[in-house]
């Protein structure tokens, strides 16, 4: 069975962060592990509080896993401070997992800042150059590049500009635009467009976390980047369509099980 690791923040309400990542790994028939970078108190209505985990504890968690277990792919989500980002980068450079997908989480759907402004440059300069794929949404891509994105051509330009910052691939996610849900992938040579019909449903908490975890999982399972993104977009589209109406705000996705029989036993 493939072994997946998420390095991210905890969402006690189970919709985003570590909890969404572990549900995705499990739903796709893999074994999930977690390194917690921050604890948030949040629910479907918003984020009430955030406490960072000390960087020595982040390092200790990463070392505990890699000293003992072979990791097939890593996904990084919420990392709020420069010192935690630097620690994660140094640890991953030491342990060298085969695939690294970075979701540059900056602000929650409910509007709470999850990345300190001064940590943005550390994320870009230190972590981006060692990633297989970085998956910004539109506001994140705008913040990374200090530009405005209003349509598909802007997304393509942004994907190329973020690629120039060092990652092997960039997926600019279009969930925040109107019309079809279009994501743009650039790998240094080719732009690939992934389109799915927009689902007009309310429960979309954790879509970005779920997509990046699903991509890391499909890379670990042996799919190339384009196929991994395509399969993961299918997964997240179905998960949004079956979103769960719990809480008073934006509810979570439904992580239905989708095993790959040929890989479950290896
Ligand atoms: N209403 C929707 N219908 C169909 N697909 C969607 C919808 N909203 C987002 N998506 C898709 O979900 C994935 C995540 O995109 P999005 O831009 O929402 O990321 P995000 O903002 O990081 O997510 P989050 O809601 O967790 O912050 C993308 O593949 C996007 O195209
Ligand atoms: C711990 C954690 N990580 C990521 C998100 C972003 O998810 P969303 O944009 O759906 O709020 C979040 N709210 N909490």
TrEMBL record:
Pfam families: Phos_pyr_kin. Its EC number is 2.7.1.49, 2.7.4.7. The keyword rRNA processing does not apply. Keywords: ATP-binding, Kinase, Nucleotide-binding, Thiamine biosynthesis, Transferase. Residues 11-254 form the Pyridoxamine kinase/Phosphomethylpyrimidine kinase domain. Pathway: Cofactor biosynthesis; thiamine diphosphate biosynthesis; 4-amino-2-methyl-5-diphosphomethylpyrimidine from 5-amino-1-(5-phospho-D-ribosyl)imidazole: step 3/3; Cofactor biosynthesis; thiamine diphosphate biosynthesis; 4-amino-2-methyl-5-diphosphomethylpyrimidine from 5-amino-1-(5-phospho-D-ribosyl)imidazole: step 2/3. It catalyses: 4-amino-5-hydroxymethyl-2-methylpyrimidine + ATP = 4-amino-2-methyl-5-(phosphooxymethyl)pyrimidine + ADP + H(+); 4-amino-2-methyl-5-(phosphooxymethyl)pyrimidine + ATP = 4-amino-2-methyl-5-(diphosphooxymethyl)pyrimidine + ADP. It comes from the Bacteria. One of its GO terms (cellular component) is cytosol. One of its GO terms (biological process) is thiamine biosynthetic process. GO terms for molecular function: ATP binding; hydroxymethylpyrimidine kinase activity; phosphomethylpyrimidine kinase activity. Gene3D superfamilies: 3.40.1190.20. InterPro entries: HMP/HMP-P_kinase_dom, PM/HMP-P_kinase-1, Ribokinase-like. Belongs to the ThiD family. PANTHER family: HYDROXYMETHYLPYRIMIDINE_PHOSPHOMETHYLPYRIMIDINE KINASE THI20-RELATED (PTHR20858:SF17), PHOSPHOMETHYLPYRIMIDINE KINASE (PTHR20858). This is Hydroxymethylpyrimidine/phosphomethylpyrimidine kinase. It comes from Clostridium formicaceticum. The gene is thiD.
């Amino acid at each position: 069975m493939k072994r997946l690791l998420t390095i991210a923040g905890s969402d006690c309400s189970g919709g985003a962060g570590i909890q969404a990542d572990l549900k995705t790994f499990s739903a796709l028939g893999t074994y999930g592990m977690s390194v917690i970078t921050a604890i948030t108190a949040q629910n479907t209505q918003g984020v009430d509080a955030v406490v960072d985990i000390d960087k020595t504890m982040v390092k200790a968690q990463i070392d505990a896993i890699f000293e003992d277990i072979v990791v097939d792919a890593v996904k990084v989500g919420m990392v709020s401070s420069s010192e935690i980002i630097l620690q994660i980068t140094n640890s991953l450079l030491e342990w060298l997992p085969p695939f690294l997908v970075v979701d540059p989480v900056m602000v929650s759907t409910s509007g709470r800042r999850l990345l300190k402004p001064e940590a943005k440059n550390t994320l870009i300069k230190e972590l981006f150059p060692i990633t297989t794929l970085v998956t910004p949404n539109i506001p994140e891509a705008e913040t990374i590049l200090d530009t405005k994105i209003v349509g598909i051509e802007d997304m393509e330009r942004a994907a190329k500009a973020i690629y120039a910052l060092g990652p092997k691939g960039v997926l600019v996610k279009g969930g925040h635009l109107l019309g079809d849900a279009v994501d743009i992938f650039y790998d240094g040579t080719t732009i690939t467009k992934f389109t799915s019909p927009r689902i007009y449903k309310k429960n979309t908490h954790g879509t970005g976390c779920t997509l990046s975890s699903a991509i890391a999982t499909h890379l670990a399972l042996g799919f190339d980047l384009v196929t991994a993104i395509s399969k993961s977009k299918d997964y997240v589209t179905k998960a949004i369509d079956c979103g769960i109406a719990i809480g008073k705000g934006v509810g979570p996705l439904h992580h239905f099980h989708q095993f790959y029989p040929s890989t479950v036993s290896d």
